[in-house]
Write the structure tokens for this entry.
Amino acid sequence: MQFLIIAHDGTDPDAMDRRLAARPAHFERARKAKADGTLLIGGAILDEHDQMIGSSLYVEIDSREVLDQWLADDPYTKGNVWQTFEIHVMRIADLD
């Protein structure tokens, strides 16, 4: 199954510090997920001042239950960076 995940960061004064602290481990995990085909594409959501306020991810994962565990294991979730999620089942268009 393919999913679109919109993960919203906290909005408290320490939110950016938590993101930056967890970022190296998050990127390491993201590189592995990209290599194994789980992560199709992802990146930061920016505000009007180009500050990171969340993330968007397109993933291919077996089920919603597996996705929930995958998100729970991410350093951004464990580090309290991502605090709320919008999750949508979707299908990437094949335009070839």
About this structure: The chain is about 35% helix and 35% strand.
